[in-house]
Amino acid sequence: MTVPPDFNSANNQATQQASSLMPTYARQPIAFVRGQGSYLYTEDGTAYLDALTGIAVCGLGHAHPVVAQAISEQAGLLVHTSNLFEIPWQEAAGQLLTKVAGMQQVFFSNSGAEANEAAIKLARISGHKKGFGSPKIIVMDKSFHGRTLATLSATGNAKVQAGFAPLVEGFLRVPFGDVDAIKQLASQHDDIVAILVEPIQGEGGINTAPQGFEYLNQLRELCDQHDWLLMLDEIQTGNGRTGKYFAFQHTPITPDVLTTAKGLGNGFPVGACLVQGKAVNLFAAGNHGSTYGGTPLACRTVYTVIDCLEKEGAVENAAKMGNYLVEQFQQKLTQYQVTVRGFGLMIGIELPIACGELVARARDEKQLIINVTADKVVRLLPALNISQADADEIIARLVPLISDFIQSKT
Ligand SMILES: *Cc1c(COP(=O)(O)O)cnc(C)c1O
């Protein structure tokens, strides 16, 4: 069965009957019922080339046979016990994930926001251990950290926060890339405990700091100097997306706290908060928990995803295909005043004008799934194991769309 028994298609549903879902998303009028690799299919069998992968989630592509097999086998064995018991797959996934991350311990959550909640709690408990009654965390403009109350309070986007005051206290905000602003805060507050930052801002428009990854070195130095925790949100940039397993691995530094989710389960909902060095053992029994966090099913999936990424050379492929795509877009769009930014297969093409309408045009005219973020940035997050032929297909479908669009508007 590819759709529920009385499903009408998203189009009809919108007009013929009121949806029973809260309208938290402005949904596109299309439903996919199956996927394979870099392609999604509607019920009538139309194929769409997926350059979004559920927003950087399905790094191994859709319906990956090894991952699907692991999920179905584990579903037939044991889905859930409880963290009241030992969970061998959680140990195994933890071993593998800490190894590829170069971290020491992990807490498994069910989402990215929950991984960041764990990081925020770690920062606070580190402060309370130093005797600070109201510890502060430095966060960035244009950041995105999630939709729970603490993570939306940390987020640097007024739209995400609007309507939800009172926000969670204890965050100090600075411009992304501005080291002097942090030094100034350090001179004004003696109860700062951590910096929380995305190495590359995803929702913010695929931005690195003006000084590039040198920013992370500077933040590491400040954190060492002041005994703060450097906490990297790699929920979007992790799991091979930027051409290294984690984005910080493009630099010499290691964070104290690292969060990830999106690509970690290839679509299975799971997140992780990792620690090393001075952040190890900050939580004791009873300080944090999750009923679902780290189930045998979730952790066997994580284990299988990491194993497949490695065996298929998907991270190296992301680096190679990313360079190729960026080069091609730069070459082919050079006369249109676009800026192409790319780190592995996390690619942003910034246009001189707002381009939200390109999402529907790419879908309906080119059967290509893309996303636009920060109004003007076409965001591409294709599967990490994408083939050369499919990468060329993205270029062939997208370049004329963007060039025609800019020519028609300017
Ligand atoms: C998606 C995202 C989150 C939130 O993850 P959820 O799984 O949606 O809670 C947090 N931080 C970053 C950088 C993200 O891209």
Automatic annotation (TrEMBL):
CDD domains: OAT_like. One of its GO terms (biological process) is L-arginine biosynthetic process. N(2)-acetyl-L-ornithine binds at R147, S290. Its main location: cytoplasm. Pyridoxal 5'-phosphate binds at G112, A113, F144, D233, E234, I235, Q236, T291. Pathway: Amino-acid biosynthesis; L-arginine biosynthesis; N(2)-acetyl-L-ornithine from L-glutamate: step 4/4. It is an enzyme of class 2 (transferase). One of its GO terms (molecular function) is pyridoxal phosphate binding. The modification N6-(pyridoxal phosphate)lysine is found at K262. The keyword Oxidoreductase does not apply. One of its GO terms (cellular component) is cytoplasm. Binds 1 pyridoxal phosphate per subunit. It catalyses: N(2)-acetyl-L-ornithine + 2-oxoglutarate = N-acetyl-L-glutamate 5-semialdehyde + L-glutamate. Keywords: Amino-acid biosynthesis, Aminotransferase, Arginine biosynthesis, Cytoplasm, Pyridoxal phosphate, Transferase. Its EC number is 2.6.1.11. PROSITE patterns: AA_TRANSFER_CLASS_3. It is found in: Cytoplasm. Its cofactor is pyridoxal 5'-phosphate. The keyword Protein transport does not apply. Pfam families: Aminotran_3. NCBIfam families: argD (TIGR00707), PRK01278.1 (NF002325). Belongs to the class-III pyridoxal-phosphate-dependent aminotransferase family. ArgD subfamily. HAMAP family: ArgD_aminotrans_3. This is Acetylornithine aminotransferase. The gene is argD.
